[in-house]
Write a structure and sequence with these properties.
511 residues, alpha/beta, Rossmann fold, 18 strands
Length: 511
Amino acid sequence: MKRFYHFLFLFGLSLLVLSCSKEQIIQEDIQKDDYTLDEIKDLVEKDLQQGKTFDWRSQETGVIFSAAMLSDSIFSIGYTISKDFDLESKIHTIDLQSDAWKDAKAKVEQFILEYERQTLGSDITMRDIAPFGDVEHFPQIIISSSNRALIDALREHDLVRFIEPIGFSITDFYTSDRSSSGCNGDPNYNIHTDDYTVVSPTAKVPWNFYNHQIDQAWNSSSKGDNVKICVIDTGASDDQDNLGDQFNSGNSNNRTIEKYSTKYSGSWWWRSLDSPDDPCGHGTSMSGLAAGPWSNDGNSVGTAYQSDLMSIRAVSDVIISNSDERAGVRDALYLAGNDSAVKIISMSIGTPFYSSTVADGIIYAYNQQKMIFAAAGTSLSWTNWYPVIFPANMSQAHAITGVQDGANLEECETCHTGDEVDFVLVMERHFDDERNSIGLARYSNQPKYVGGSSAATATVAGIAALVWGENLNATRAQILTALQQASDIYPNRDDDFGWGKINAELAVDNL
């Protein structure tokens, strides 16, 4: 009898332990399935404090799903024809209309529909859950969904490369700073006279151009003639005539300017393509620094003032943040990558989030032999501890940051540094962080101060155009070598400043 009671005691104890274990497992699952905004913020900042961009590919499904539900419920799904397919080296050769790629897409879409029909009804089609329609040029599917089981299953699917909530951004935590990020296109009427030099007929050369011997490079180079620079940013202002009917004026002539937009607003039947115009001002300034004309109207001159220019509006401000903008940047990279005349892409925009959606575009343009320069990061009140941001931290891009003038290398007040940085550009007075380079304002022939790694990136893109203009048949690798060998730290490399400051005249001579 004692043995029987002993057995009952042990059996009951085991049931209690199993019950507690089951309850604990359920609690752990709930914690992993449901993340608050503050919890995701903590995960993001933990990575950033360790010097890493936040990558959805390394996160649990619960984080990904919760982030989508906290934003616009839109997921981007990358697909492939097989696990072994080397998309990174072959993305520019893909024919999405081939049988293999059409079959892969159909299988993933059918898989999605099988899950969605369980909750939304058997008559649901892809048109009902695809807010942006078909992705035209990349192996990606974009859907709106609130089905956690589907997201779990997709992450295990053999034909799925990635899944990410493309509408989620860290700027959701700081909405008070979000709306004006990098947007101030007004002219500055109190620019210090020491911060530019007036050259015939009346153009203004920014003071920092002389720190990089850009003026000397002009004397011995083609000024970027027949080199097309693509600036992916907030667009080019219709109210700035130096990016309009005065693009060919003064000493700039016989060149072209094109303005496009790949940025949509809204979704479903409200979705419409934005105009190429720049309501922000940032893209106008970047286009001006890279390739603004040597005009006769008193405005500031661009680095490669004889280069052709393609301006693409893909974002609202400097932060690549929502679904429309990530899709817009991806499509802008396709447009630039598919233009054989474009040799250089300048991106003074970025995000602390790695985006596979955008990365496909970066890899595509790179594989089309484009030279990509991207801003290492310009801090706002809440980003001054960020590492080099995306996409500048990708191996296919050259990260650029800004430094102060002076004998020693010191980053600008708001500029990011790190071992991904390749080159730096002087663009800030060491004794006054408000006296930066100067560039085109959104309107008026009076320029404005332009700073941060944004200004540095656009100017370095212009220097590369000066070099490439010397030999249009040169390879991207040859241009890079010429820039490296003309930098003041070469042949060494600094952990924060890369190869250092470029001597534009020497870079031109190197080619």
